[in-house]
Amino acid sequence: MTSIGTLSQPRARLAPSWPLAVGALVFAVTLALGPRDLADPDIYFHIVTGRWIIAHGAVPHADLFSFTMRGAPWVAHEWLAEVIMALAYVGLGWHGLVIAAGLAVATAMAVLVRALLRSLDPAHALVAAGTAFLLLLPHLLARPHLFALPVMVAWIACLTAARDRERPPPLGAALLMVPWVNLHASFLFGLAFAAMLMGEAVLLATTREQRLAALRGWAGFMAAAVLASFVTPNGFEAYLLPYRLLHMQYVLANLIEWQNTKLGAFQPLEVWLLLVLLAGFTLRLRLPPTRIAIVLLLAHMALAHWRYGELLGFSAPLLIAAPAATQLGRFSGTTSSAFDHWMSDMARPGGFRGAAITALIMVAVAGTFSTSALQPPDLFRPAAAIEAVRDHRVEGPVLNDYNFGGYLIFVGIPTFIDGRADMYGDRFVKRESDAVDLHSGDLPALLDEFHIAWTLLPPDSRAVVLLDHLPGWHRLYADSIAVVHARSASSNAEPQSKL
Fold first, then answer.
1. What is the pLDDT of residue 394?
2. Per the CB 3.0–4.6 Å rule, which of 224, 372, 434, 487 could disulfide with 440?
3. Domain residues of the chain, as ranges?
4. Smallest Cα–Cα separation from 76: which of 423, 426, 428, 429?
């Protein structure tokens, strides 16, 4: 294919560019997934938190939603993303939240493709972008990390481009830390990524003067980025929270998103690794040892905790693109076919008209999507069980399943526990889990200690069987999503069942 290095002038024609086309396609795919994007129990409390921030004009620093930790210190480290989520939900309901998430992912993918096209021909850039989206799929949920994704990709693209030109990043790029630190805790990865590239710049410098110049330039940028990361209402707590979470051994071992990637079943990461091996053996690419080391570190992180898959997916192509570009060039072909010209022409910036047409297409897709029925999956939404509790006028504290906490917050019921594991702490999360799973024999004591009036647990919970036979308790309601038990004195009504 024709080299795109000189194709920098935007086109006046109506056709979009590859970044716009990929962004529009990803937007449509994200919307098509619909309910799957909402299949997470924490989405509910993120929306409620965002609405509270909008209503009060402040970021909370103490627990607002539980009765077990009421008033305890709480770091709302994703407050800006939660405001975005709340605004999207208030504006268009669940459709609005999915559309907002789709726009965030589409923007990130468009930025990635544009950055890759600086070094790679369109075919290779599109393949690399496809592998990035592949690794995002398991974590493609309308949660705060998606709204931080465009900032993360812009950061990685800017830093790798500067390093490939053997220059420090522009100081202005440090300002990307300001939104990032308020969107998601992954800003720490951004600082670590910059530190790794700074180490590469110093290590690979050939003379003492170049080494000192690289150190001064990157250190100045790092200092500016660290300063920018303190532009947050959470201050130094933004740094401490991820540190505390990574030291919560029980939480990391048992929460799904923090578990390691299980390669026994089909996993996008396994496909990604196989594709990388195939490309390495087939194309015989040779990369700088420092880039190999960084990619291997990211692969290790993704294997250790599957939620890190997108870090690998979006970082690796940008790290590899420039070093591999000259080697990949010989596989691009030398013919000047109409297809080659079309591919290269699409690599140019699309211009205003191409962007406007792409935007109109996306608006049409969003409009069509908004007319469809949409609700989060029932798995984390025990709506009928809550209705039964209210119909029977059961009042008092609830012992709820961890995954039901978000929905309880959403409907205004104080929780025993919810998805804010960092606030509850490892010991509390473990105690609740061991009690409900009957690993500790602590369930009766827990019910009495917290004056529990009713329980809300999934049907397959071991505690459900015990509560069926525990003196002073009776089954009030049951369906395929949740089972409610109440203290016998709380209600004289006959139990219901939809099983």
1. 95
2. 434
3. 18-369, 378-490
4. 423
